[in-house]
Amino acid sequence: MKNILNTYKLYKNTILFGGIAILIFCLLQQCNSNQNLKREIQQVQRVSDRNLNNYKALQDTIIVEKNKNKDLVSSIMSFEYDVNTLSEKNKNLIKRYNRQLNINTELENVNSLLSTTINVKDSIINATGIVTVVEDTIKVNVADENNFDKYNWRRFDGQISLLRDSSSYSLFSSRFNIEQGIGLSAAIVTDNGYNRLKISTPYKGVTFTNIENINLVNDRLNKKYEKEAGWSIGVGFQYGLNLNNNQVISTGPSIGLGIYWSPKFLRF
Predict the structure, then answer these.
(1) Where does residue 88 rank: exposed (0-12), middle (13-18), buried (19+ CB within 10 A)?
(2) What are the pLDDT digits (tens) for 217-234?
């Protein structure tokens, strides 16, 4: 027992120094674990928010309003998918965009997918026309043009030929040409924490019967790079507690070659 006490007295500073080192190591380990837990919670929260967004987007319907120019503006909530966790149903949906837009199947450099279906209701009233009569044939040429602005317009022209028989006229031939310019303006805006696609056109008589916006994210690529915690061997310069050959603990700077363990938030 006496030998144990003598040994303890001889090396008590060494034991104290080792105990402090173990305590610091445990604290750093705990800080590193807390950092990992925080990152996992953030990832779970991100996936949860995405699922809630997609649920609400699935229930959403097209909302129509008017802008300052009295043009109709249609909007709907956006979906958000992680390209690494697409379900079979979503994969088939994405393939449709792949085929139509001729984009790569891996969706590299693709951030958003947009689609809309429009219904155009138009009328031609009091079009200008010329009637030409040649023997038993009557030709009627009509034309009409409507320019809403530089990029939104409609041009129409046509011709019908009537052939006279004994007591009436029958339609001999007909040709109608219609050409349209329809400009679309679209934006993805954040409304109450959720993305919405808004789309509009000055072309009169256009209604949007279907709107779809899919925002694509890649959690793996967007994951913030973090160095991993671990052991390393190297030359270190530090300031702290030092234990000299005389078993005396002192504070001050030191330089040495050693084995180091660092949590990831202290690595650079």
Answers:
(1) exposed
(2) 877 765 555 556 555 555
Looking at the domain assignment, is residue 12 inside a domain?
yes
Same-domain status, 79 and 203: yes
Q: Which domain holds residue 30?
A: 2-43+225-266
**104 lies in the same domain as 212:** yes
| 195 and 89 belong to one structural domain | yes
- Do 116 and 193 belong to one domain? yes
Tokens of 163: 């052939």
Q: What is the pLDDT of residues 155-210, one digit of tens each?
A: 999 999 998 887 788 888 999 999 999 999 999 998 888 899 999 999 999 999 99
